[in-house]
Amino acid sequence: xxxxxxxxxxxxxxxxxxxxxxxxxxxxxxxxxxxxxxxxxxxxxxxxxxxxxxxxxxxxxxxxxxxxxxxxxxxxxxxxxxxxxxxxxxxxxxxxxxxxxxxxxxxxxxxxxxxxxxxxxxxxxxxxxxxxxxxxxxxxxxxxxxxxxxxxxxxxxxxxxxxxxxxxxxxxxxxxxxxxxxxxxxxxxxxxxxxxxxxxxxxxxxxxxxxxxxxxxxxxxxxxxxxxxxxxxxxxxxxxxxxxxxxxxxxxxxxxxxxxxxxxxxxxxxxxxxxxxxxxxxxxxxxxxxxxxxxxxxxxxxxxxxxxxxxxxxxxxxxxxxxxxxxxxxxxxxxxxxxxxxxxxxxxxxxxxxxxxxxxxxxxxxxxxxxxxxxxxxxxxxxxxxxxxxxxxxxxxxxxxxxxxxxxxxxxxxxxxxxxx
Length: 421
Hints:
The chain is built from 13 helices and 19 strands. It is of the alpha+beta class. It folds into three domains: about 1-105, CATH 2.40.50.100; about 115-185, Irregular (Dihydrolipoamide Transferase); about 200-420, Chloramphenicol acetyltransferase-like domain (Chloramphenicol Acetyltransferase, 2-Layer Sandwich), CATH 3.30.559.10. The strands form five sheets. Strands 9, 12, 15, 16, 17, 18 and 19 form a seven-stranded mixed beta sheet that branches. Helix 2 runs parallel beside helix 3 (about 150-160), helix 9 crosses helix 10 and helix 9 packs across helix 12.
């Protein structure tokens, strides 16, 4: 029986995806729940797995193609599960044999092979421009192939030789009469690489530009003395990790402080939908995480009901899945407010861009020992600049400033979280 491999049903916010790498070839045996092919969407890379044991019978869509909901990508032959892969079909097997024979003949490199085949297009062009033959240049590429860099190096060397040296080295009269080398390209090889944007990167670019074009963005700043928070962490970090099995980090403090501030200033947790303002009575906080594929913002759900340990554990879990490319679309959908920490990369100060349709984002930065005045004395304290970028269409400046001041007050006196003052 032939079973179709289909694109899974995508959420309403995702209309299409780009087919990634096939992990199996036609004729390969597959097992149920084994990853067959990747699907890159605007948000994550999904694994499309086999629904049955069998043999991959066909690949109907090639890598890089745009696909939509329920589109058929290929087929699995469930009755061929116990058959060797090469017996999956007679005709393809014959074709494969022919291809193999052609490949076997083409691989050996002999002296009768045309010289032009030993140089790439860029190298051949440069050889022609300077009246050189391929035999004059020592190749450093695969199997002695002459590269553009080899040609440029040869030209440099020839430019430093006297005419007699050039002649004795076996170069032709054309080489001796070569025009002066003044092209800066010969002094330093410059190469361009053009690669298509990933679907995730394109989507990030679209959303950031959408935020700039649509929202009335404004950023307010403050600074916070983190000494009280750091003292509290140092005092309880060992017992916290022993009791909860996770380290007590900074993000739980910032997340809890943000939720408390959002409760006091509901507009910062709201969003605009057409002519309406939608006030969210829940607190789903996006935590920006850097991955190999780009910035992703997984969501912590109902953070007001989470403990410090719950927050630290969930952030650790989501960050690990982001790095491994295991986040699902549901992990990235929604969110009422976001936090981003550029400080882990050394950022001193920045103006983060909000994540539509959210109306605000909190930016954390690097911690630095700076002189501050406390009780009339200049002392060194671990200070951090905070930034709140917000949509001025829905949030007034007074609300934005007081929101950031609330976070500052809570972090500088963490007992406020317990007493809710």
